[in-house]
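Thread title: Can someone regenerate the structure for this chain?

I was given the following input by a collaborator and told the matching structure tokens would be attached. They weren't. Posting the sequence so someone can regenerate them.
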Amino acid sequence: MDQAKIKEALKSVVEPTFEDNIVKLRMVGKIEVDGTSALVTIKLPTPAYPSVSKQQLESDVVAAVKGAGASKVVVKYTIEVAHSPAPSDKALLKGPKNVIAVAAGKGGVGKSTVATNLALALARHGAQVGILDTDVFGPSIPTMLGNPEQPAGPTDDKKIRPAIHYGIKVMSVGFFVDKQEAVVWRGPMVHRLLQQLLGDVEWGELDYLICDLPPGTGDVQLSLSQLIPINGSVMVTTPQEVSIIDVVKGISMFEKVEIPITGIVENMAYYQCPACGHHDEIFSRGGGKRLSQEIGVPFLGEIPIDTRIRYGADSGAPIVISSPDSVHSRMFMDIASQVAMHIAKPIVKAPKRSTRLAVIK
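Best answer:
Regenerated them for you:
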């Protein structure tokens, strides 16, 4: 038994989400052999790798290596967050490896609630995360996250230091304008502000930057698509038809600017009375799931109407933080895992680029 024989055996192990063998996907790291014992290192593409897939992967790796002659197999995991370098014309943002936009076709569907809990869920999985509140005219992230552990402010080299809330880095125009003041700006001013928030903020090394977009299909969405590479967009909707119609328009816009649709989240999907257990579909139900099937994008999950989710957003303690073991918190943790895997999939499956220079004859 040697490393080559083990690596050959591991070609029989298929990663369930990426649907290819782990050798081809470059997920196999260091292999150590000591007699008939083997240690295999598996490189996971995200800290939010699903636990069920991890258990299945370990079981399959052990079976494959034992089939190659090992009597004892130890599987070790390392995290190498999948990411691609930004193209030269979109290199304004320094530090974040992946950018995820959270968007909605209309206001009032809970987009910022989903964005905030998604970011905090990714952080709970172990990722380094930031949130950029790009809703210039109605920033709500500062309210949803409460008082920071470290406020935003200037640095010695005239850059902007993001605020720290619950261990994640946060930037919002709401930190710098009075809550009672209306922001009345034209498109070019918004574009310049976004340039500053992206290029002048010291984000540092982040695995994921969540961009909470304003509702609709306006200047912010277009500016972001021009300034930085966005790995995927999470569309938030409520079940009723008036919300679904606007989500379709938002999806159409993202397709035009070549931003992948990571999936759809249906918020306010139903209400379950905590006292008697009565179930009521106030805004109908299933519209988001039906739309995802019609257009062929993943359905990430449904979030119910719940007082604790609303209270968490209003009080500055989102439910992923205030009630980490609740059913709703686990829903956001599952959505975060799905989003991270969908973002990683095209990167992991991409053919390895050769670093050799072509010989010019």
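Residues 25 and 348 are 6 Å apart (CA to CA).
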